[in-house]
Amino acid sequence: MRDRAADPEAHQPPGSRPAPAAARLGGRHAPPGPSDPGAQHGSSDAPERGRLWRRLIEFAALSAAVGVAVLTGPGLGDVRRDVEHASVGWLLVGVGLEVLSTLSYVVIFRAVFCPRMRWSLSYQIGMSEQGANSVLSVSGAGGLALGAWALRRGGMSAEQIGRKSVAFFFLTSLPNVVGVIVLAALFGLGVPSDDRDPAITYGFGAAALVATLLVLALPRLLGSTAEEPAAPSQGRVARAARFARSSLTQGVPDAALLLRRRSPGVLLGSLGTVAFDVAVLGACFRAFGHEPPLGVLVLGYLIGQLGGNLPTPGGIGGVDFGLVGMFTLYHQPLALSTAAVLTYHAIALWVPGLLGSLAFVQLRRTLNREARPAVICTPLAEAIASVP
Fold this sequence. Notes:
By secondary structure, the chain is mainly alpha-helical. It contains 13 helices and no strands. It has helices spanning 21-25, 49-72, 77-84, 88-113, 119-135, 141-153, 158-189, 198-222, 236-260, 264-287, 294-304, 318-329, 334-369. Helix 7 (158-189) packs antiparallel against helix 11 (294-304). The radius of gyration is 23 Å and the shape is globular.
Protein backbone atom coordinates (compact mmCIF):
# COMPACT_ATOMS: atom_id res chain seq x y z
CA MET A 1 0.00 0.00 0.00
CA ARG A 2 1.45 3.37 -1.00
CA ASP A 3 1.88 6.16 1.51
CA ARG A 4 -0.53 8.92 0.49
CA ALA A 5 1.64 11.57 2.13
CA ALA A 6 4.60 10.58 -0.02
CA ASP A 7 2.77 10.15 -3.34
CA PRO A 8 1.27 13.23 -4.98
CA GLU A 9 -0.78 11.03 -7.34
CA ALA A 10 -2.61 9.60 -4.34
CA HIS A 11 -4.31 12.95 -3.87
CA GLN A 12 -5.87 12.91 -7.34
CA PRO A 13 -9.67 12.61 -7.23
CA PRO A 14 -11.20 9.38 -8.59
CA GLY A 15 -11.60 9.33 -12.33
CA SER A 16 -9.15 12.14 -12.97
CA ARG A 17 -5.95 11.74 -14.90
CA PRO A 18 -2.74 12.62 -13.06
CA ALA A 19 -1.09 15.79 -14.25
CA PRO A 20 2.09 15.42 -16.26
CA ALA A 21 5.21 15.26 -14.13
CA ALA A 22 6.57 18.55 -15.41
CA ALA A 23 3.33 20.33 -14.52
CA ARG A 24 3.34 18.85 -11.00
CA LEU A 25 6.90 19.90 -10.31
CA GLY A 26 6.42 23.59 -10.84
CA GLY A 27 9.92 23.43 -12.30
CA ARG A 28 11.59 24.77 -15.39
CA HIS A 29 9.55 22.62 -17.80
CA ALA A 30 6.12 23.44 -16.36
CA PRO A 31 4.22 25.82 -18.63
CA PRO A 32 2.52 28.60 -16.65
CA GLY A 33 -1.21 28.05 -16.66
CA PRO A 34 -3.91 30.61 -16.06
CA SER A 35 -4.79 29.04 -12.71
CA ASP A 36 -1.23 28.96 -11.46
CA PRO A 37 -0.88 31.73 -8.87
CA GLY A 38 2.85 31.68 -9.25
CA ALA A 39 2.99 31.81 -13.00
CA GLN A 40 3.79 35.49 -13.03
CA HIS A 41 5.83 35.65 -9.85
CA GLY A 42 7.87 32.48 -9.39
CA SER A 43 11.19 32.04 -11.09
CA SER A 44 12.20 28.51 -12.05
CA ASP A 45 15.67 29.22 -13.37
CA ALA A 46 18.47 28.15 -11.06
CA PRO A 47 20.67 30.89 -9.59
CA GLU A 48 23.96 31.04 -11.42
CA ARG A 49 26.62 29.12 -9.49
CA GLY A 50 29.37 31.24 -11.03
CA ARG A 51 27.67 34.47 -9.91
CA LEU A 52 27.48 33.24 -6.31
CA TRP A 53 31.16 32.29 -6.29
CA ARG A 54 32.13 35.61 -7.89
CA ARG A 55 30.21 37.40 -5.17
CA LEU A 56 32.02 35.29 -2.56
CA ILE A 57 35.40 36.28 -4.05
CA GLU A 58 34.36 39.95 -4.16
CA PHE A 59 33.19 39.71 -0.58
CA ALA A 60 36.53 38.15 0.45
CA ALA A 61 38.41 40.97 -1.28
CA LEU A 62 36.25 43.60 0.44
CA SER A 63 36.75 41.93 3.82
CA ALA A 64 40.50 41.81 3.23
CA ALA A 65 40.51 45.51 2.36
CA VAL A 66 38.65 46.32 5.58
CA GLY A 67 41.11 44.19 7.54
CA VAL A 68 44.10 45.92 5.98
CA ALA A 69 42.58 49.32 6.74
CA VAL A 70 42.10 48.35 10.39
CA LEU A 71 45.61 46.90 10.72
CA THR A 72 47.45 49.73 8.97
CA GLY A 73 45.19 52.80 9.11
CA PRO A 74 46.25 55.87 11.12
CA GLY A 75 44.49 56.59 14.39
CA LEU A 76 43.57 52.91 14.98
CA GLY A 77 46.48 52.00 17.24
CA ASP A 78 44.25 51.15 20.19
CA VAL A 79 42.11 48.86 18.01
CA ARG A 80 45.20 47.07 16.67
CA ARG A 81 46.54 46.64 20.20
CA ASP A 82 43.28 45.08 21.36
CA VAL A 83 43.17 42.76 18.34
CA GLU A 84 46.71 41.57 19.02
CA HIS A 85 45.81 40.63 22.61
CA ALA A 86 42.50 38.93 21.83
CA SER A 87 41.72 35.62 23.55
CA VAL A 88 41.68 32.85 20.95
CA GLY A 89 39.56 30.68 23.22
CA TRP A 90 36.73 33.21 23.38
CA LEU A 91 36.90 33.73 19.61
CA LEU A 92 36.47 29.97 19.09
CA VAL A 93 33.49 30.08 21.45
CA GLY A 94 32.06 32.83 19.25
CA VAL A 95 32.47 30.68 16.13
CA GLY A 96 30.64 27.79 17.82
CA LEU A 97 27.81 30.08 18.94
CA GLU A 98 27.44 31.41 15.39
CA VAL A 99 27.07 27.85 14.11
CA LEU A 100 24.25 27.35 16.63
CA SER A 101 22.62 30.58 15.41
CA THR A 102 22.68 29.41 11.78
CA LEU A 103 21.24 26.03 12.77
CA SER A 104 18.43 27.80 14.64
CA TYR A 105 17.61 29.61 11.40
CA VAL A 106 17.27 26.22 9.69
CA VAL A 107 14.88 25.08 12.45
CA ILE A 108 12.49 28.01 12.03
CA PHE A 109 12.75 27.83 8.23
CA ARG A 110 11.48 24.25 8.31
CA ALA A 111 8.78 25.04 10.89
CA VAL A 112 7.33 27.88 8.80
CA PHE A 113 7.73 26.69 5.21
CA CYS A 114 7.22 22.94 5.51
CA PRO A 115 7.24 20.94 8.78
CA ARG A 116 7.29 17.71 6.74
CA MET A 117 10.44 18.63 4.85
CA ARG A 118 13.44 16.34 5.26
CA TRP A 119 15.96 17.80 7.70
CA SER A 120 18.74 17.40 5.15
CA LEU A 121 16.85 19.50 2.61
CA SER A 122 15.83 22.04 5.26
CA TYR A 123 19.50 22.45 6.11
CA GLN A 124 20.50 22.85 2.48
CA ILE A 125 17.88 25.52 1.69
CA GLY A 126 18.08 27.38 5.00
CA MET A 127 21.88 27.45 5.09
CA SER A 128 22.05 28.42 1.41
CA GLU A 129 19.79 31.39 2.16
CA GLN A 130 22.11 32.52 4.93
CA GLY A 131 25.12 32.14 2.66
CA ALA A 132 23.43 34.25 -0.01
CA ASN A 133 22.53 36.90 2.55
CA SER A 134 26.18 37.03 3.63
CA VAL A 135 27.71 37.58 0.19
CA LEU A 136 24.95 39.32 -1.77
CA SER A 137 23.64 42.84 -1.38
CA VAL A 138 20.13 44.35 -1.19
CA SER A 139 19.64 43.52 2.48
CA GLY A 140 18.68 39.85 2.38
CA ALA A 141 16.95 39.79 -1.00
CA GLY A 142 19.56 37.34 -2.32
CA GLY A 143 18.66 34.70 0.27
CA LEU A 144 14.95 35.22 -0.29
CA ALA A 145 15.33 34.76 -4.05
CA LEU A 146 17.43 31.62 -3.63
CA GLY A 147 14.98 30.06 -1.19
CA ALA A 148 12.04 30.90 -3.46
CA TRP A 149 13.79 29.23 -6.39
CA ALA A 150 14.42 26.04 -4.40
CA LEU A 151 10.87 25.90 -3.07
CA ARG A 152 9.44 26.43 -6.57
CA ARG A 153 11.55 23.53 -7.78
CA GLY A 154 10.05 21.52 -4.93
CA GLY A 155 6.49 22.26 -6.04
CA MET A 156 5.40 25.17 -3.84
CA SER A 157 3.25 27.81 -5.52
CA ALA A 158 4.30 31.45 -5.60
CA GLU A 159 1.24 32.31 -3.49
CA GLN A 160 2.38 30.01 -0.68
CA ILE A 161 5.99 31.19 -0.98
CA GLY A 162 4.82 34.80 -0.69
CA ARG A 163 2.60 34.39 2.35
CA LYS A 164 5.03 32.08 4.16
CA SER A 165 7.91 34.46 3.43
CA VAL A 166 5.93 37.22 5.15
CA ALA A 167 5.24 34.95 8.13
CA PHE A 168 8.90 33.91 8.24
CA PHE A 169 10.16 37.50 8.16
CA PHE A 170 7.69 38.52 10.88
CA LEU A 171 8.67 35.63 13.16
CA THR A 172 12.42 36.08 12.71
CA SER A 173 12.12 39.84 13.34
CA LEU A 174 9.85 39.46 16.35
CA PRO A 175 12.57 38.63 18.94
CA ASN A 176 14.48 41.78 17.97
CA VAL A 177 11.45 44.04 18.22
CA VAL A 178 10.03 42.46 21.38
CA GLY A 179 13.49 42.54 22.95
CA VAL A 180 13.73 46.32 22.44
CA ILE A 181 10.22 46.81 23.89
CA VAL A 182 10.86 44.60 26.93
CA LEU A 183 14.26 46.10 27.70
CA ALA A 184 12.90 49.63 27.39
CA ALA A 185 10.12 48.71 29.82
CA LEU A 186 12.59 47.11 32.25
CA PHE A 187 14.89 50.12 32.11
CA GLY A 188 11.88 52.31 32.81
CA LEU A 189 11.11 50.23 35.90
CA GLY A 190 14.71 50.46 37.03
CA VAL A 191 15.56 46.81 36.31
CA PRO A 192 18.37 46.93 35.30
CA SER A 193 19.43 50.32 36.65
CA ASP A 194 22.39 51.09 34.35
CA ASP A 195 20.60 52.86 31.49
CA ARG A 196 23.25 55.21 30.10
CA ASP A 197 21.02 56.95 27.55
CA PRO A 198 17.30 56.87 28.47
CA ALA A 199 16.22 58.99 25.48
CA ILE A 200 17.51 56.42 22.98
CA THR A 201 16.14 53.50 24.99
CA TYR A 202 12.62 54.86 25.32
CA GLY A 203 12.57 56.32 21.83
CA PHE A 204 13.42 53.02 20.15
CA GLY A 205 11.15 51.12 22.56
CA ALA A 206 8.19 53.29 21.57
CA ALA A 207 9.04 53.02 17.87
CA ALA A 208 9.27 49.22 18.13
CA LEU A 209 5.88 49.04 19.85
CA VAL A 210 4.23 51.23 17.20
CA ALA A 211 5.81 49.20 14.37
CA THR A 212 4.58 45.92 15.89
CA LEU A 213 1.03 47.18 16.28
CA LEU A 214 1.08 48.54 12.73
CA VAL A 215 2.23 45.22 11.26
CA LEU A 216 -0.42 43.31 13.22
CA ALA A 217 -3.07 45.70 11.88
CA LEU A 218 -1.96 45.36 8.24
CA PRO A 219 -4.43 42.56 7.31
CA ARG A 220 -7.33 44.69 8.54
CA LEU A 221 -6.00 47.86 6.93
CA LEU A 222 -5.31 46.28 3.55
CA GLY A 223 -8.43 44.13 3.44
CA SER A 224 -8.69 40.72 1.81
CA THR A 225 -7.80 39.84 -1.77
CA ALA A 226 -9.05 36.28 -1.56
CA GLU A 227 -12.35 37.08 -3.23
CA GLU A 228 -10.97 39.54 -5.79
CA PRO A 229 -10.24 37.78 -9.08
CA ALA A 230 -7.20 39.05 -10.92
CA ALA A 231 -8.12 40.87 -14.10
CA PRO A 232 -6.42 39.45 -17.21
CA SER A 233 -5.67 42.99 -18.40
CA GLN A 234 -3.77 43.96 -15.25
CA GLY A 235 -0.28 45.29 -15.85
CA ARG A 236 2.88 43.96 -14.26
CA VAL A 237 2.93 46.61 -11.54
CA ALA A 238 -0.72 45.99 -10.65
CA ARG A 239 -0.15 42.22 -10.46
CA ALA A 240 2.91 42.71 -8.27
CA ALA A 241 1.00 45.06 -5.96
CA ARG A 242 -1.87 42.60 -5.67
CA PHE A 243 0.57 39.76 -4.98
CA ALA A 244 2.28 41.79 -2.24
CA ARG A 245 -1.05 42.75 -0.71
CA SER A 246 -2.23 39.14 -0.72
CA SER A 247 1.03 37.93 0.84
CA LEU A 248 0.81 40.50 3.64
CA THR A 249 -2.86 39.95 4.43
CA GLN A 250 -2.36 36.18 4.66
CA GLY A 251 1.21 35.95 5.96
CA VAL A 252 0.76 38.02 9.13
CA PRO A 253 -2.21 35.90 10.36
CA ASP A 254 -0.19 32.77 9.52
CA ALA A 255 2.60 34.01 11.80
CA ALA A 256 0.11 34.78 14.57
CA LEU A 257 -1.39 31.31 14.19
CA LEU A 258 2.02 29.65 14.58
CA LEU A 259 2.65 31.69 17.72
CA ARG A 260 -0.73 30.73 19.20
CA ARG A 261 0.04 27.08 18.54
CA ARG A 262 3.38 27.50 20.33
CA SER A 263 5.19 25.67 17.55
CA PRO A 264 8.47 24.42 19.10
CA GLY A 265 10.34 24.95 15.85
CA VAL A 266 9.13 28.54 15.59
CA LEU A 267 9.84 29.43 19.23
CA LEU A 268 13.22 27.72 19.48
CA GLY A 269 14.31 28.77 16.01
CA SER A 270 13.39 32.46 16.30
CA LEU A 271 14.82 32.88 19.80
CA GLY A 272 17.90 30.79 19.07
CA THR A 273 18.79 32.71 15.91
CA VAL A 274 18.95 36.01 17.83
CA ALA A 275 20.11 34.78 21.25
CA PHE A 276 23.11 32.86 19.93
CA ASP A 277 24.06 35.79 17.70
CA VAL A 278 23.97 38.18 20.68
CA ALA A 279 26.11 35.66 22.56
CA VAL A 280 28.66 35.78 19.70
CA LEU A 281 28.99 39.54 20.20
CA GLY A 282 29.32 39.03 23.96
CA ALA A 283 32.06 36.44 23.41
CA CYS A 284 33.92 38.87 21.17
CA PHE A 285 33.80 41.53 23.91
CA ARG A 286 35.12 38.96 26.38
CA ALA A 287 37.91 38.08 23.95
CA PHE A 288 39.15 41.67 24.29
CA GLY A 289 38.84 41.73 28.06
CA HIS A 290 35.64 43.74 28.35
CA GLU A 291 32.17 42.73 29.50
CA PRO A 292 29.41 45.31 28.96
CA PRO A 293 26.29 45.09 31.16
CA LEU A 294 23.84 42.55 29.80
CA GLY A 295 21.14 45.13 29.13
CA VAL A 296 23.54 47.37 27.25
CA LEU A 297 24.89 44.43 25.23
CA VAL A 298 21.44 43.22 24.16
CA LEU A 299 19.93 46.64 23.53
CA GLY A 300 23.02 47.88 21.67
CA TYR A 301 22.89 44.75 19.49
CA LEU A 302 19.17 44.96 18.75
CA ILE A 303 19.23 48.64 17.80
CA GLY A 304 22.63 48.60 16.11
CA GLN A 305 21.59 45.79 13.78
CA LEU A 306 19.26 48.24 12.04
CA GLY A 307 22.34 49.36 10.14
CA GLY A 308 22.22 46.02 8.32
CA ASN A 309 19.25 47.29 6.29
CA LEU A 310 21.63 49.28 4.11
CA PRO A 311 22.05 47.53 0.72
CA THR A 312 25.74 46.66 1.09
CA PRO A 313 27.32 43.19 0.72
CA GLY A 314 26.90 41.44 4.04
CA GLY A 315 25.92 44.73 5.68
CA ILE A 316 29.59 45.77 5.76
CA GLY A 317 29.77 49.32 7.02
CA GLY A 318 26.12 49.61 8.03
CA VAL A 319 26.17 46.97 10.78
CA ASP A 320 29.63 48.03 11.98
CA PHE A 321 28.81 51.74 12.28
CA GLY A 322 25.41 50.93 13.76
CA LEU A 323 26.77 48.68 16.51
CA VAL A 324 29.83 50.79 17.32
CA GLY A 325 27.69 53.92 17.38
CA MET A 326 25.17 52.38 19.77
CA PHE A 327 27.81 51.08 22.18
CA THR A 328 29.52 54.46 22.11
CA LEU A 329 26.24 56.19 22.94
CA TYR A 330 25.88 53.75 25.83
CA HIS A 331 29.32 54.88 27.05
CA GLN A 332 31.32 51.74 26.20
CA PRO A 333 35.05 52.13 25.32
CA LEU A 334 35.33 53.11 21.65
CA ALA A 335 38.46 51.10 20.79
CA LEU A 336 37.25 47.95 22.53
CA SER A 337 33.78 48.26 21.00
CA THR A 338 35.26 48.71 17.52
CA ALA A 339 37.53 45.68 17.87
CA ALA A 340 34.71 43.51 19.27
CA VAL A 341 32.19 44.59 16.62
CA LEU A 342 34.58 44.06 13.68
CA THR A 343 35.51 40.61 14.99
CA TYR A 344 31.86 39.73 15.60
CA HIS A 345 30.89 40.84 12.11
CA ALA A 346 33.68 38.78 10.56
CA ILE A 347 32.43 35.67 12.38
CA ALA A 348 28.77 36.43 11.61
CA LEU A 349 29.58 36.74 7.90
CA TRP A 350 32.12 34.02 7.25
CA VAL A 351 30.53 31.16 9.21
CA PRO A 352 27.17 31.28 7.32
CA GLY A 353 28.98 32.35 4.14
CA LEU A 354 31.18 29.25 4.03
CA LEU A 355 28.54 26.83 5.33
CA GLY A 356 25.95 28.33 2.98
CA SER A 357 28.19 28.01 -0.08
CA LEU A 358 28.76 24.33 0.64
CA ALA A 359 25.04 23.82 1.32
CA PHE A 360 24.18 25.45 -2.01
CA VAL A 361 26.35 22.95 -3.87
CA GLN A 362 24.55 20.13 -2.03
CA LEU A 363 21.16 21.71 -2.78
CA ARG A 364 21.79 21.82 -6.52
CA ARG A 365 22.83 18.17 -6.46
CA THR A 366 19.71 17.23 -4.50
CA LEU A 367 17.35 19.03 -6.86
CA ASN A 368 19.09 17.64 -9.95
CA ARG A 369 19.16 14.12 -8.52
CA GLU A 370 15.51 13.92 -7.47
CA ALA A 371 13.37 12.36 -10.18
CA ARG A 372 10.31 14.12 -8.77
CA PRO A 373 11.28 17.19 -6.72
CA ALA A 374 7.61 17.67 -5.82
CA VAL A 375 7.84 14.79 -3.33
CA ILE A 376 10.76 16.42 -1.49
CA CYS A 377 8.18 17.89 0.86
CA THR A 378 4.58 16.75 0.67
CA PRO A 379 2.38 18.64 0.59
CA LEU A 380 4.30 21.83 -0.17
CA ALA A 381 1.16 23.66 -1.24
CA GLU A 382 -0.59 23.04 2.11
CA ALA A 383 -1.40 26.22 4.00
CA ILE A 384 -0.05 26.79 7.51
CA ALA A 385 -3.56 26.73 8.95
CA SER A 386 -4.10 23.13 7.82
CA VAL A 387 -0.76 21.71 9.04
CA PRO A 388 -1.10 20.18 12.51
